[in-house]
């Protein structure tokens, strides 16, 4: 798969990143380099290889999985620039 300038512009728009017209060719090249690396990784045979979480064999500390309400809603919402009806209020971002 190859990314052209138009596709790079569309991806930048979807990511809400402003990219100047003269930079689109370089961005498309970077996207193509990433896709090339992914294709290279897909060629590796991993049949029978166990997935790993870490390179060191350590067990993570675990805590009891207990559901609580936290009891700090007012304290947390006091930091919010805009809170309504017990929730964070955020600007609409979907067009």
From TrEMBL:
One of its GO terms (biological process) is glutaminyl-tRNAGln biosynthesis via transamidation. GO terms for molecular function: ATP binding; glutaminyl-tRNA synthase (glutamine-hydrolyzing) activity. HAMAP family: GatC. It comes from Marimonas arenosa. Pfam families: GatC. Allows the formation of correctly charged Asn-tRNA(Asn) or Gln-tRNA(Gln) through the transamidation of misacylated Asp-tRNA(Asn) or Glu-tRNA(Gln) in organisms which lack either or both of asparaginyl-tRNA or glutaminyl-tRNA synthetases. The reaction takes place in the presence of glutamine and ATP through an activated phospho-Asp-tRNA(Asn) or phospho-Glu-tRNA(Gln). Its EC number is 6.3.5.-. This is Aspartyl/glutamyl-tRNA(Asn/Gln) amidotransferase subunit C. The gene is gatC. Heterotrimer of A, B and C subunits. Keywords: ATP-binding, Ligase, Nucleotide-binding, Protein biosynthesis. It comes from the Bacteria. It catalyses: L-aspartyl-tRNA(Asn) + L-glutamine + ATP + H2O = L-asparaginyl-tRNA(Asn) + L-glutamate + ADP + phosphate + 2 H(+); L-glutamyl-tRNA(Gln) + L-glutamine + ATP + H2O = L-glutaminyl-tRNA(Gln) + L-glutamate + ADP + phosphate + H(+). InterPro entries: Asp/Glu-ADT_sf_sub_c, GatC. Belongs to the GatC family.
């Amino acid at each position: 798969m190859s990314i052209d300038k138009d596709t790079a512009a569309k991806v930048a728009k979807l990511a809400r990143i402003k990219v100047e017209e003269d930079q689109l060719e370089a961005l498309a090249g970077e996207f193509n380099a990433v896709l090339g690396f992914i294709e290279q990784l897909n060629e590796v045979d991993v049949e029978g290889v166990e997935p790993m979480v870490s390179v060191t064999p350590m067990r993570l500390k675990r805590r009891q999985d207990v559901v609580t309400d936290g009891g700090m809603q007012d304290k947390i919402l006091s930091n919010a620039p805009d809170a309504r009806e017990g929730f964070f209020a955020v600007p609409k971002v979907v067009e």
